[in-house]
């Protein structure tokens, strides 16, 4: 790899040296959000769902194991490698066939979506728990509205996992989300499938809509209006087929890398460009990035595109309000782009960053200031003054996949390189990240 080496120490520590341009094409790994939903909705549905290009990552394996443990048959079973295509035979209206403990690993999406289904399965009793990072992630945001539906859920210290779910018959409610969260919206929509009467979720700010798209494809009765979505009880879902597009959140690392490393040109193919996920493209373009998006086909309601990105000088911007949920997972890498831009970048209205796999305000500010950035934390985001580059240094991923990959991209774009401790965290969403990066660096 010209200008770039990766030194692995027990798979945990990697060094990313300053590199030349990124060139070539790639298809990023499959979308994590859509993969979780394919497994869960496939398990709820009746009959087989054929799933193509399911994400092979730690998080999405946790979801597949969880639904298999609940009685959904996955065939062929994923062993060392995820099959390119497999079938999930859902449990249908009779509901889950087993009770007991569910280990979600590091998967916050699994922790927040699955209870929506289980809470309405009368007679079931489950305990969900995960790793140390999961135990710091709030779940009262789902237990409170599920409680209003009549669910019996116990959470720890009124806020955190582990959670105990005692399934019972639920009733539909109308609920306005106090935080913009696709996970909470999805949880309530899944609960609504088995509730008495309609369930309406009001979202003052739009969040990713993959659950609505997939439930519609499965034949659920869903009505979507401005800022609200209603689901009616639907016992007989049939999903048939899901082709998972590549993940724009994984692509984001290369959108930024190619923008900030001079001479780069990268084609990112077959990537999901659902408008509730493309905030990163709009933000980078506003900063002056050279990004072309060429629409391809529309896989079951989820649009796909070929994205070409070439390096370009960037300028600072403001990211706030309704744009935050559309780029929530990409804000760390936006902060890195801002270090290479000219002028000030403000990220505001993004307190939610504190509740992600790590406190992404504190951890990003710490990491980037350690690399020489002019950056300060704010209660609801951060302020960065771009200096056109970064010195480099070292960072601990804190077990957060997006921080590990941020460190890697910072390293190749920096003057002195970056050592990432805990690089293995990337496997949560992007196990082949280092290979793909190495290939683009030639
Ligand atoms: C996700 C929604 C977002 C996002 C997470 C995945 C989803 O979380 O940060 O990585 O798949 O629904 P919130 O909805 O809690 O903001």
Span between termini: 5 Å
Radius of gyration: 21 Å
Ions, cofactors and other ligands present here are: shikimate-3-phosphate
Number of helices: 13
**Largest sheet strand order:** 2-15-17-16
Supply the CATH class of the largest domain. Answer: Alpha Beta
Largest sheet: 4 strands, mixed
Number of domains: 2
Report helical residue fraction: 25-40%
Average per-residue pLDDT, rounded, comes to 95
The third-level CATH topology of the largest domain is UDP-n-acetylglucosamine1-carboxyvinyl-transferase, Chain
Give the second-level CATH assignment, the architecture of the largest domain: Alpha-beta prism
Structural class: alpha/beta
Strand content: 25-35%
Overall 3D shape: globular
User: Total number of β-strand segments?
Assistant: 23
Model description:
This protein has 442 residues and is α/β, with parallel strands linked by helices. It folds into 2 domains: 224 residues, UDP-n-acetylglucosamine1-carboxyvinyl-transferase, Chain; 212 residues, Alpha-beta prism (UDP-n-acetylglucosamine1-carboxyvinyl-transferase, Chain). The protein contains 13 helices and 23 strands. The strands form 6 sheets. Strands 2-15-17-16 form a 4-stranded mixed β-sheet. A 4-stranded mixed β-sheet has the order 4-5-3-14, with helices on one face. Strand 10, helix 5 and strand 11 form a beta-alpha-beta unit. The longest helix has 13 residues. It starts with 12 loop residues before the first strand and ends with a helix. The relative contact order is 0.15. The site of shikimate-3-phosphate (S3P) has 12 residues, from helix 1 and helix 5.
């Amino acid at each position: 790899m010209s200008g770039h080496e990766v030194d692995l120490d027990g798979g945990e520590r990697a060094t990313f040296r300053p590199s030349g341009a990124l060139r070539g094409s790639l298809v990023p790994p499959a979308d994590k959000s859509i993969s979780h939903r394919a497994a869960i909705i496939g398990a709820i549905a009746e009959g087989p769902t054929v799933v193509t290009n399911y994400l092979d990552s730690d998080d999405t394996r946790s979801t597949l194991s969880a639904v298999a443990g609940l009685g959904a048959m996955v065939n062929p079973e994923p062993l060392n490698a995820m099959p390119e295509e497999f079938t999930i035979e859902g449990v249908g209206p009779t509901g889950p066939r087993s009770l007991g403990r569910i280990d979600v690993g590091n998967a916050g999406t699994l922790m927040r979506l699955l209870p929506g289904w289980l809470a309405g399965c009368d007679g079931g009793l489950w305990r969900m728990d995960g790793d140390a990072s999961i135990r710091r992630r709030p779940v009262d945001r789902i237990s409170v509205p599920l409680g209003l539906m009549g669910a019996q859920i116990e959470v720890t210290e009124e806020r955190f996992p582990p959670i105990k779910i005692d399934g019972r018959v639920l009733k539909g409610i109308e609920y306005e989300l106090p935080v913009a969260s696709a996970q909470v919206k999805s949880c309530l929509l899944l609960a609504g499938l088995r509730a008495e009467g309609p369930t309406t979720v009001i979202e003052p700010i739009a969040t990713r809509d993959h659950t609505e798209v997939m439930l519609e494809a499965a034949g659920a009765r869903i009505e979507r209006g401005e800022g609200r979505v209603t689901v009616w009880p639907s016992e007989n879902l049939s999903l048939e087929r899901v082709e998972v597009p590549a993940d724009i959140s994984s692509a984001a690392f290369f959108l930024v890398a190619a923008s900030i490393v001079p001479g780069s040109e990268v084609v990112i193919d077959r990537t999901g460009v659902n408008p509730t996920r493309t905030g990163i493209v709009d933000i980078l373009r506003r900063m002056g990035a050279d990004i072309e998006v060429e629409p391809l086909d529309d896989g079951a309601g989820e649009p796909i595109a070929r994205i070409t990105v070439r390096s370009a000088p960037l300028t600072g911007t403001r990211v706030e309000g309704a744009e935050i949920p559309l780029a929530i997972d990409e804000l760390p890498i936006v902060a890195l782009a801002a270090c290479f831009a000219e002028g000030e970048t403000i990220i505001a209205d993004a307190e939610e960053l504190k509740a992600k796999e790590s406190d992404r305000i504190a951890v990003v500010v710490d990491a980037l200031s350690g690399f020489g950035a002019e950056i300060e934390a704010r209660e609801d985001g951060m302020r960065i003054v771009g200096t056109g580059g970064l010195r480099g240094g070292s960072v601990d991923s804190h077990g957060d996949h997006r921080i590990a990959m941020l460190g890697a991209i910072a390293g190749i774009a920096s003057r002195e390189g970056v050592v990432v401790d805990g690089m293995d965290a990337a496997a949560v969403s992007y196990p082949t990240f280092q290979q793909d990066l190495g290939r683009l660096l030639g």
